[in-house]
Amino acid sequence: MESLYVVGFAVLAVIAFVLVIILLKFFTTWVRARVASAPVSIGKMVGMSLRKVPVGLIVDNRITAVKAGIDISSDPLEAHYLAGGDVSQVILALIAADKAGIALDFNRACAIDLATKGTGKTVLEAVRTSINPKVIDAPNPAMGRATIDGVAKDGIGAKVKARVTVRSHLDRFVGGATEETIIARVGEGIVSAIGSADSYKDVLENPDRISKAVLAKGLDSNTAFEILSIDIADVDVGDNIGAKLQSEQADADKRVAQAKAEVRRAAAVAVEQEMRAKTQEMRAKVVEAEALVPQAMADAFRSGNLGIMDYVRMKNVQADTSMRESIAGTDKPPGIQPS
């Protein structure tokens, strides 16, 4: 019996020791929460510790929320921490939204916090942007372009710099398009507005027509922002794109015409070579025919059809013809010689 008493006393001593350790570890935090009217039971603190959740972080943020008039229990805060969220940023964002009169519940704030994780932005920044609008340059200089270039109907370009004032749209922040989409849409709208202008002078005289035309397109749909205004910061005259295009078209037409002329020249050269070949062929036939003349004359002499006087008269006619041609300055074609 004495041994049983000893064992029971030892168990009670261990339990008491554990309770003392727990009290020493969490008592100060429990008292702080109780005094701040944001109580968290010691049992929940022990559970947080077992789940490796920083008790002080959860309790302090609950106290901050309660003192700001937002009653949030420790369980949602613990769940958001375990999901990888930033509890402090969520509480501060809720307080900022509440003070500014912006409707933002805890679940949406947690969703925004998780959505912005790893992007370099925070839910608090989103709320602050909703309270204090930010200005976005279009185009973004960091992307390597200084102006948005468009061409009016007269062919002269215009270079535009715009500044877009936006604020966060918390209802569309999760899943909404980012600043890059806003910049791209604004650039597209500016190019379209410049292109619809009859002259670049209209763009220079009334730059506000660009902002009005762009705003009318509702470029902030399905984005995480609401466009408040689009201001044209600078408008410059660009290159005469129409003249350049006409010049390039004229050069292209010239090259095409030259190519066609070269084709015709090559065809003419081929025809000329062909005619020369035919001429040489005909000359060969003439020479061949002339070679038969002496033989025919010899046959005529033998047969008595040609006398010596006939031959003399023929030679005189040939000599007279050669003299007349020499006086006239005409040459016989090569290959044809008097017999």
Structure, explained:
The chain has 339 residues and is an alpha+beta fold. Among the domains are: 2-131, no CATH class; 140-242, 2-Layer Sandwich (Tetrahydropterin Synthase, Chain A), CATH 3.30.479. It is 63% helix and 11% strand. It has 12 helices and 4 strands. Strands 1, 2, 3 and 4 form a 4-stranded antiparallel beta sheet that branches. α3 runs parallel beside α5 (87-100), α5 packs across α6 and α5 (87-100) packs parallel to α7. The longest helix is centred in the last third of the chain and has 63 residues, at 241-303. The radius of gyration is 52 Å and the shape is elongated. The termini are far apart.
> Structural class of the secondary elements?
alpha+beta
| Topology as a string of helices (H) and strands (E) | HHHHHHHEEEHHHEHH
Runs in which pLDDT lies below 50 for 5 or more consecutive residues are 334-339
Distance between the termini: 166 Å
Instruction: Work out the number of β strands.
Output: 4
Overall average pLDDT: 83
Gross morphology is elongated
Determine the fraction of residues in helical runs and give it as a percent range.
55-70%
Sheet with the most strands? 4 strands, antiparallel
Number of H- or I-type helical stretches: 12
The gyration radius over C-alpha positions equals 52 Å
Strand content: 5-15%
